[in-house]
Design brief:
Layout: E1 11-13, E2 16-18, E3 22-24, H1 39-50, E4 55-62, H2 80-95, E5 100-105, H3 140-146, H4 155-175, E6 180-183, H5 189-194, H6 209-212, H7 214-227, E7 233-238, H8 253-266, E8 270-274, H9 290-298, E9 301-305, H10 314-320, H11 329-337, E10 343-346, H12 348-352, H13 356-362, H14 371-377
Parallel strand pairs: 3-4, 3-10, 4-5, 5-6, 6-7, 7-8, 8-9, 9-10
Antiparallel strand pairs: 1-2
Helix pairs in contact: 1-2, 2-4, 4-7, 7-8, 8-9
Length: 379
């Protein structure tokens, strides 16, 4: 692959300057003991920066809220030790020439999916519902437990979570991160307000699509007010949910425009369209991907993700245990060159080859992802 490839064009978004369009996608690791990222975490991210990756989006990071994340080994963005750990991560990445943003995370209705939880703690659910059950990879015992209704979020709950996101963003900026990313997909808290399967509220935070968008937009606006104008905000969104892989938040481009337009107006700079394969058409009658529609509808920078270089989606590869190589990078190049989207996020191949960007630039063969080796070690 020639260095003249569209993958290696620079890009600037606010103060964030990227040497190329290759992004390391967020992947949960559970290697941060008591939520504090250690030297091994810093070394893990440094290797990808040294390998030439333009932007690193960290694994999901818990905001300062009691039910943000249920796994104590998932890193958090609060507390002196954790912030010091993240500062070390940022310094290592910057020293290697990379750029990095944290993906702030609240699991919302999916509280309890990763580990046992305190039953006295209230999961944050817009309407008390886990979601409309469909095709899911969760085990039956968890689904049976999680689908029991709980109390809906109160106005105080909503205010508390918005404030927690803002505090986490301020802490990330203090640690030296190059921007802020938000996980607003897959059925987690921000996404659960967008989805009718979890949001049946009839107040200002639910009802029609415009009102269902108010909570994630309010979180974005609070973060923008906290961090100022320099740092970009990245927002991951999706149609599918982990409660139901066939769920959708928008049935038409016009509906998607309502959602994304509100997020951009609130302060989002990069829309991260999460799908299982980056080139899957989002709506009938067009071959545009979800990232392509996001670009067309809003005009902002967009990022695609999903099975780059791999012949099966993550869910499919976990079921079968194998993930054959699919040399679809040329299709990524074509779509970036045409202006369909601007960035491509790659997850599993960054586990198989920390120097993936250098490998692509030099024309080397795509690495083969072996789940038993690479996902287990997460080195």
């Amino acid at each position: 692959m020639a260095a003249s490839s569209p993958l290696f064009r620079p890009l600037r978004v606010r103060s964030l300057v990227l040497a190329n369009r290759i992004v390391m996608s967020p992947m949960t690791r559970s290697y941060s003991i008591d939520g504090v990222p250690g030297e091994d975490v810093a070394a893990y991210y440094r290797r990808r920066a040294a390998g030439g990756t333009g932007l690193i989006v960290t694994e999901g990071v818990a905001i300062d809220h009691p039910t943000a994340v249920d796994n104590p080994r998932v890193p958090r963005m609060h507390g002196a030790e954790a912030i010091a750990g993240w500062r070390r991560v940022v310094d290592e990445v910057h020293d290697a020439g990379g750029r990095i943003v944290p993906q702030l995370w609240h699991v919302g209705p999916l509280w309890g999916a990763m580990s046992a939880v305190d039953p006295a703690l209230k999961p944050m659910r817009p309407s008390g519902s886990w979601g409309t059950l469909g095709i899911t990879s969760y085990p039956e015992d968890y689904v049976a437990w999680a689908t029991r209704p709980t109390e809906a979020m109160t106005e105080q709950d909503i205010a508390d979570v918005i404030a927690a996101y803002a505090r986490a963003a301020a802490a990330a900026a203090e640690a030296g991160f190059d921007g802020i990313a938000l996980h607003g997909g897959h059925g987690y808290l921000l996404d659960s307000f967008l989805w009718e399967g979890t949001n049946t509220r009839t107040d200002a935070w639910g009802g029609d699509l415009e009102r269902r968008t108010r909570f994630p937009a309010a979180v974005v606006a609070a973060i923008r007010a906290e961090i100022g104008d320099d740092l970009p905000i990245v927002f991951r969104f999706s149609q599918h949910k982990q409660q139901n892989y066939t769920a959708r938040i928008a049935e038409t481009p016009d509906e998607l425009k309502v959602i994304l337009g509100a997020l951009v107006e609130a302060g989002v700079d990069i829309l991260d369209a999460s799908i299982r394969r980056f080139d899957t058409p989002a709506f009938e009658g067009s071959d545009l991907s979800l990232a392509g529609w996001a670009k067309q509808l809003t005009g902002v920078t967009t990022m695609a993700v999903g099975s780059v270089g791999i012949g099966k989606s993550l869910r499919e590869s976990r079921i079968s245990g194998s993930a054959p190589i699919d040399d679809n990078v040329h299709e990524v190049e074509r779509r970036i060159d045409s202006g369909e989207f601007d960035l491509i996020a790659v997850g599993r191949l960054h586990l198989a080859d920390p120097a993936l960007a250098t490998t692509l630039r030099s024309g080397g063969p795509l690495p083969e992802f072996d789940r038993a080796i690479h996902e287990a070690s997460l080195t």
